[in-house]
Amino acid sequence: MPERPCANPVWPCAMCGAVSCLSGFAGIEVVIHGSSGCYFYPASLIQRPLHATLIMEEEVIFGSEERLRQVVGEIMGQGGRVAVVQTCVPSVIGEDIYGALDDWDVIVVDSPGFAGGMEEGYRRAMAALGPEVGGDATGITIDGLNPIDPFYRGNLFEAERLIRTAGGTVAAALAAGPVERVQACGRVSVSTNPGLSAGVGSSAGDILGLDATKAAFSRLADLCGLDAAPVLREAGEAEEQIDRACDRFLARFDPPAVAVFAEASYAAFAAETLKRCLDAEVVVSAPRTGEGAVTSLEEIGELIAETEPDLILGSSYEQALAPAIPSVGITFPQRGRVRLQARPIAGIEGSLAFIEDVLTACRSRRPSGT
Q1: What is the pTM of this model?
Q2: Same domain, yes or no, for 247 and 344?
Q3: Is residue 367 pLDDT above 80, yes or no?
Q4: I need a labelling partner for 95 at 20 to 30 A (CA). Which of 3, 89, 204, 249 fits?
């Protein structure tokens, strides 16, 4: 059996990761080569226009190359560049989709669900696009962006804002903006999520948290001559705002016991921030990725029941399992919540927004000594 099948409801498979990565770029149409289920699941998470072959039983038996060429041909006829993501069924039955599309200029990503988790598919798609440093590139590359992430647009806008504040420009964004910019990346990059960095050029670090943001822009000043002073000054002011708000909270409330469920980089940021700012006790740290990954609803429910946290950081799954416990969404999916604003979790505004959400959620608890 696959280690992480597509049926896993908590964390998307490699197919979803590849589709998400490709869908972030303008000028490319993404085709999911598989069944209707393989289409509707990522489409519901990513909320972006996607195409699919929607193969049926007879095509599984007799082959689906003809159907694939029909769908791809129709899209190419409209002038768009096409990327095809292979799913489990065509992969298992051994279809040669590379051969079927060999005479067309199509990007093919072999990323069936059983290949691994979302990050593996994201990396496979990024490798297929082949990002590289442009010969005359002078700007900074923003790395680690993932359209499946509820903070995707906010992280992009915040990274762009901070780079402009430091007097820099953006060469490319991965995964965002025109797809042709993938081959014109800057020689230095900064990441909004170190768990998804493409590794193009020299990394100045990430901006997930205030300390990380200050370190990254200090390094950008050394590598690229950017003026880090305005960013460092703004980060210092944000730290003061957070400290004042957290001190006021702790004057009335006990430090919270917190359960964290999120992708590894976000989980680490959240846990470290709450321990430092609110003296929080992290009773559960359950990353979705990496060593000790927790992706079972049953295990998640048991962890919550055993530890009885005051606050849960996670997705709508954790909220559904423990609706009486205050929660803050820091990972996908966020079903049942309307999200129109481009809200970041990275950078300075991301840290402010995160603490704002946490303090608002925690205020439903009773004050200390009552």
Answers
A1: 0.93
A2: yes
A3: no
A4: 3
